[in-house]
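Justification of computing resources. Each target in the renewal requires a structure prediction run like the one illustrated here; the chain below, 491 residues long, is used simply to show the kind of job we budget for.
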Amino acid sequence: MKEELDALTKNHTWDLVTLPPGQSVVGCKWIYKIKTRSDGSVESYKARLVAKGFTQEYGIDYEETFAPVARISSVRALLAVAAARKWDLFQMDVKNAFLNGDLSEEVYMQPPPGLSIESNKVCHLRRALYGLKQAPRAWFAKFSSTIFRLGYTASPYNSALFLRRTDKGTILLLLYVDDMIITGDDLSGIQELKDFLSQQFEMKDLGHLSYFLGLEITHSTDGLYITQAKYASNLLSQAGLTDSKTVDTPVELNAHLTPLGGKPLSNPSLYRRLVGSLVYLTVTRPDISYAVHQVSQYLSAPRSTHYAAVLRILRYLKGTLFHGLFYSAQSPLVLRAFSDADWAGDPTDRRSTTGYCFLLGSSLISWRSKKQTFVARSSTEAEYRALADTTSELLWLRWLLKDLGVSTSSATPLYCDNQSAIHIAHNDVFHERTKHIEIDCHFIRYHLLHGALKLFSVSSKDQLADIFTKSLPNRRTRDLVDNLKLVSHPP
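Resulting structure tokens:
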């Protein structure tokens, strides 16, 4: 607590003043946390003073609050590119990041509990404080303006990616709130960047990248392994799964969840917590994407059948605890995409499921399992809607990869297992069977003609996106997991 108060004083976070008439006061409180390393040992004891931002009123105490963070697929894309180029990956962390943000509004706060000051004084905040609604935005603005002074620019496709290209080489910095990954081939420039940031902010240099946002990253001569084994084992203990029963697939074959199966859960909060954690686990575990997408649909009124489905996913995880993504150092930097749909797969509302995945060489960098918003009247229409979703992700990834220094001059191959959907994309046919998906037709055809993508037919056996749209038998699940380069990497 003393350390935190010292940091606040050093930063000149507030001035003690008498409260002007007509001004409201925001409360504050202490939050305590024990931070652990990836092996579970204690790293530090942390006390943080937070403002009670929930009492702030929009338009009086704050205006805009949006602050960009790195999209998780851009984190994976950056790691895949760094692995293939054999670049060193470094990690830094900003201590008390939000205290660096400058406040433009007048905010008054009660003095922190435990600080002895005159009774009629309040803190007039000069700097942002954790808990204030505008704190993340103020910090991001401060960081951006600081790094721009060193000649860096923000990528137009991901505001949290900063890059600098000189004759000496490229440097990339990806920011996620106060954690950052730094990589590139200009090592002297990277050292200069670290020194510059350390002069501007209180920084913690964490050396080579090893543990970032709950992702465990292991470097070897043949590439990078990315797992969330610690996160998964914490989740299993939270769910109380102590027996050693495991299953081979995350979803029971041909099992469909419905809103009214089984009895309502008496306490749905554990279900919601587990599903929330499983959603974050899909960052390195595409094999559970479809299963998690299924159980996420029943968060408002979960029932016993839904809880049983969550337990099945956890039993599957128990048997595949150390599975994670492998990014090979030998992987060619060529993007390819797979798109698939499961037509009218949901028995309740007959909506289809879109599934897609993107590989950079052999490295899986982006995927999705999502229920379509409209009911498709044919399998072709469902596949076509999936193609349109895949195309918009494909365009964004091509732009992002260009910023990461990967050539995207040739068209990206997009594999689809529905011949009619490919036929519609290539031929200018509009009649009553396609007029209601006309916008999607024009969208895909436009980018097809302008050389951003090329459509190829693929047999259902080689369709990698299959795993994101339906439950599969054990053997097929195993084959797809191998093809997506999901490997087990025990410590």
